[in-house]
Design brief:
heterodimer, A: 182 residues, mainly beta, Porin, eight-stranded antiparallel β-barrel, B: 750 residues, alpha+beta, Immunoglobulin-like, 60s Ribosomal Protein L30, Chain: A, six-stranded mixed β-sheet, 23 helices, 23 strands, 21% strand, DUF3575 domain-containing protein (chain A), DUF3575 (chain A)
Chain lengths: 182, 750
């Protein structure tokens, strides 16, 4: 827990350096809300074509009690259009989180519990709605490593973890509404 | 370089945007059988252009009423009138970009708004016109903005920058910005003279996402103030309508206008082009305008009177009194003696009434004839006489007294005589050539028999010279001032004294010198505050001599508006400075004289500003002056009153102004007015050439010289200076001028 808090603080420290007239945008992924997963992102413009995003989401199990978890994803974006927060971007992200699947959504008939981390390539298009509002469509694909326990449904959770598994997963699927704070 | 040229003047004069609209007027009836659109071949198709819908409707109503009465319509408020070609239905008409067109075919008519369109077609069926068919202007080469350079008029030191350019589809984008930057090039030196105000058009997205850029600060974006708030850039076609004016350094050079066009999105400038907009051949017709010789205006002397100050200063005086022979009494039969004594009494009275006597030196002089000793005693007696004469009349103490007496030597007498009678002087010198004492010389001269001839000169030697130094502790009277000036024109004077001298001295050169010195003195006396009167008088003197100095009155004309709500600077307003001094700013006469000198200097930009200030006087005596100033600046385009007033002053002006309007209708008026100009004037032939050049569409197949060329050749024959003018003048086509010069040179050689 302490390490997690330290990690988040480090990320904020990275973004906190050189806060001079940068643009800050706060966003939320509407698709995540559709599955009752509250989420929040902060995007900081750091250059004519660059920005950094930190996104966090938490699935508390309101949608499906048997599936929960959280994710943190810092991301660097390069804006192809030439202006940040407008039109097309490409990005690279790191991601990590915890999850618990008690209903076999991931592997049918098996429960899982574990954590994951990985890298992803992202992209998207930001629509200009107004001076301070944006609507983003985003998607990405990530390569993750999972550190997990897999066991039969209803069985007792084992003590040992499975060998690390490399997976390619879709990430950052979203319809995100953003508000620019300046 | 992005500064507005005229600061704070809201009413900078700009011509309304005139464009040429063309199109076809087609008869739909002929197309009923599916044939291609045909024009009206059997009926007259007229096209009228108007500034507003109400003008058009009023004129249409009049047309219909007059048609009912069988009368001919002679026009009312048209900008231009043309007839459509009966074979093609094609028309071309000058109109305002936001004006209206009226098409009349027989009993049918149709009104259409121009709305910046360059091509408007009409499909008319009898009395009913179908829906508008508008062809958007497109470029024939879609990837290239086509700018056709044209000649522009130059008004003295003012160059209007105007451009109406259709820009096709897909140049613009919502995430792009368009910048048009005109600049003026001096055709003599090929250097950039000035930059015009940039025109910026931004797409909606571009405009609103500006501040998403890193560190962006709107207040530091130098182009933001030039963004057109009324229009947004998009992929649709649009018409660039630009108008600005540039003040030029030289009034005798031609200038070309170039424009840089650039479209840029977030990444880069994806299209840019620099093209010539106006050629080096400026339209110079306005240089031929006949301007009347305006008389200068004067301030009221009493309003600018300076306070007479009491100052101490020494004033030397001298008198000469002739005395009777061997006596101390003056010769009262001598008018000069009486006059001198009277003057002395007057002077002494002045002293008594206010001046302070510092010193009084009296020297008695005796003539050389007779004994030296007795003459010296006589001189002394004369000195004593004058001292008592003065003492009796002078009630003053404490002044320094000096007295002396001397006897004129015979040599002195000989020198005096020499100036009047050289032979007598030589004879006297002959007598005196021996080195003798005074008495011996006296005897010798007596014996020589010259005494009778020398008598008048001996009288001159009998005198008392008097030098009085006194200090005047009161202002000098006008007479004293004039005397002081006559004694020494380069003496120092007080502002009050200058004020008097301005009214007393008559010589122009001396007066101008006094005006300059008076202005400088007053300024020094009053801590730099200017004295308007001598500056205005000097300006008036310059105007009378048909010369000018624009810098003379420029500091005295305040061009800044009083407040934000005032549209122009005030005339005759009282300004109070922080010391509490009140100054009358922009007095009428000063502004009027400044205006006249600006006109002489061909600084029409400053002249038009002064004219707008002077217009506040609402006084008919300035009407012609104001009209000319505004006219020469180009305001006649949208000021019919100015046009009318100036055109009425002379036939040449009438012709030129109508030619400058550039419409077919005005060309016709110019043709009429030209009939009143004498054909012995080379300018008649020049203007005739301009008219003929406009009417010549280049379609003639004749081998004869074009009319314009013939007229130009006649003009060159009468005055060769028009040759150089024609080479530079954009009123004439280059080919016409070249042909005329070639023909003229050929004829000269024959």
């Amino acid at each position: 827990m302490k390490r997690r808090i330290l990690g988040v603080l480090c990320l904020f420290a990275v973004f906190g350096v050189r806060m001079q007239a940068q643009l800050l945008s706060v966003k939320t992924n509407l698709l995540n809300w559709g599955v009752c997963a509250p989420n929040l992102s902060f995007e900081l413009v750091t250059g004519e074509r660059h920005s950094f995003v930190v996104s966090g989401s938490y699935l508390p199990g309101f949608y499906k009690k048997s599936f929960s978890g959280w994710m943190l994803m810092p991301e660097y974006r390069f804006w192809l259009s030439g202006r940040p927060l407008v039109r097309t971007y490409l990005g690279v992200a790191a991601l990590g989180g915890n999850y618990q699947d008690q209903e076999g959504f991931i592997i049918k008939g098996k429960e899982q519990r574990g954590s994951y981390a990985g890298l992803a390539a992202t992209g998207g298009y930001s629509f200009y709605l107004g001076k301070r509002w944006n609507l983003e469509l985003s998607a990405g694909v990530g390569l993750t490593v999972a550190h997990r326990k897999v066991y039969e449904m209803g069985a007792e959770e084992p003590d040992t973890f499975e060998p690390l598994k490399l997976s390619v997963i879709p990430v950052n699927l979203g319809i995100t509404l953003g508000y620019i704070i300046k | 370089m992005f500064l507005l040229l005229v600061i704070g003047l809201v009413n900078t004069v700009q011509a309304q945007n005139q464009i040429t609209v063309s199109g076809k007027i087609l008869n739909v009836e002929a197309n009923k059988e599916g044939k291609r659109n045909l024009p009206f071949t059997d009926e007259l198709v007229e096209v009228f252009s108007y500034a507003s819908k109400s003008d058009a409707e009023t004129s249409l109503k009049l047309m219909e009423e007059q048609a009912k009465q069988g009368l001919t319509y002679h026009g009312l408020k048209e900008i231009d009138i043309v007839e459509a070609d009966p074979y093609t239905g094609y028309y071309e008409i000058k109109a305002y970009a936001n004006g209206w067109l009226l098409v009349k075919v027989g009993l049918s008519s149709e009104l259409r708004e121009v709305k910046n369109q360059l091509q408007i077609n009409f499909n008319i069926r009898g009395a009913v016109a179908l829906e508008q068919v508008v062809v958007q202007a497109t470029n024939t080469t879609p990837n290239e903005l086509r700018v056709i350079p044209v000649a522009t008029a130059r008004f003295g030191n003012v160059l209007p920058l105007t451009l109406t350019l259709p820009i096709g589809e897909h140049y613009g984008k919502t995430n792009a910005r368009f910048v048009y930057q005109p600049f003026v090039v001096d055709c003599t030196t090929d250097s950039i003279e000035a930059f015009g105000r940039p025109y910026v058009l931004e797409g909606n997205e571009y405009h609103h996402t500006q501040d998403r850029r890193m560190g962006y600060d709107l207040s530091r974006d130098t182009l933001q103030i030039f963004v057109d708030p009324a229009k947004k850039l998009s992929k649709d076609a649009f018409v660039l309508n630009y108008a600005d004016t540039i003040k030029l350094k030289h009034t005798d050079r031609n200038y070309a206008v170039f424009g840089s066009f650039a479209f840029m999105d977030y990444n880069n400038i994806y299209y840019s082009k620099t093209a010539m907009v106006n050629t080096c051949r400026n339209i110079l017709l306005m240089d031929f305008m006949e301007m009347p010789r305006f008389k200068p205006y004067y301030l009221n002397f009493e309003d600018y009177k300076k306070i007479a100050e009491r100052k101490e200063r020494p004033v030397p005086g001298e008198i000469q009194i002739n005395f009777l022979i061997n006596k101390a009494e003056p010769d009262m039969t001598d008018s000069s003696t009486v006059y001198q004594l009277d003057n002395l009494v007057r002077l002494l009275s002045d002293i008594s009434s206010g001046a302070v006597l510092k010193s009084l030196s009296i020297e008695g002089v005796a003539s050389p004839d007779g004994s030296y000793d007795s003459n010296l005693k006589l001189a002394q007696r004369r000195t004593d006489f004058l001292q008592s004469f003065i003492a009796q009349r002078l009630n003053v103490r404490g002044y320094e007294r000096k007295s002396g007496a001397r006897v004129t030597s015979w040599k002195e007498l000989a020198d005096t005589v020499m100036a009047y009678d050289t032979i007598l002087a030589q004879r006297l010198n002959q007598v005196l050539k021996e080195d003798r004492n005074h008495n011996a010389n006296s005897v010798a001269v007596k014996k020589s028999g010259l005494m009778e001839e020398l008598a008048p000169y001996l009288e001159k030697m009998r005198k008392v010279t008097y030098t009085c130094v006194y200090v005047v502790n009161r202002p000098l009277s006008p007479t004293e001032i004039l005397l002081k000036y006559q004694a020494n024109a380069h003496d120092t004077f007080l502002p009050y004294e200058y004020w008097n001298l301005f009214q007393m001295v008559k010589d122009t050169a001396r007066l101008e010198d006094l005006y300059k010195r008076g202005a400088a003195t007053a300024k020094a006396y009053e801590n730099g505050r200017a004295w308007v009167l001598p500056e205005c008088l000097l300006a008036a003197s310059y105007i009378n001599r048909d010369t000018f100095d624009v810098d003379l009155l420029a500091p005295l004309v305040d061009r800044t508006p009083i407040s934000v709500s005032d549209k122009r600077p005030k005339l005759n307003y009282v300004k109070r400075d922080f010391n509490g001094y009140e100054t009358l700013v922009n007095p009428e006469a000063v502004v009027a004289n400044y205006l006249i000198m600006c006109m002489k200097a061909r600084d029409y930009e400053s002249a038009s500003v002064a004219a707008q200030i002077l217009a506040e006087a609402h006084n008919d005596k300035y009407a012609d002056l104001i009209a000319f100033a505004l006219c020469m600046r180009g305001s006649f385009y949208n000021r019919p009153d100015v046009f009318k007033r100036v055109a009425a002053t002379s036939p040449v002006n009438d012709v030129i102004l109508n030619l400058m309007m550039g419409t077919n209708r005005n060309n016709a008026y110019a043709q009429n007015a030209l009939e009143k100009v004498s054909d012995k004037n080379p300018l008649y032939w020049y203007l005739k050439a301009v008219l003929a050049d406009r009417q010549d569409q280049g379609q003639s197949m004749s081998f004869d010289l074009p009319e314009a060329v013939k007229c130009l050749v006649t003009c060159f024959r009468m005055d060769e200076k028009f040759l150089n003018i024609a080479l530079r003048d954009g009123s004439l086509k280059e080919a016409t001028v070249d042909e005329a010069i070639a023909e003229y040179e050929t004829q000269k050689q024959q």
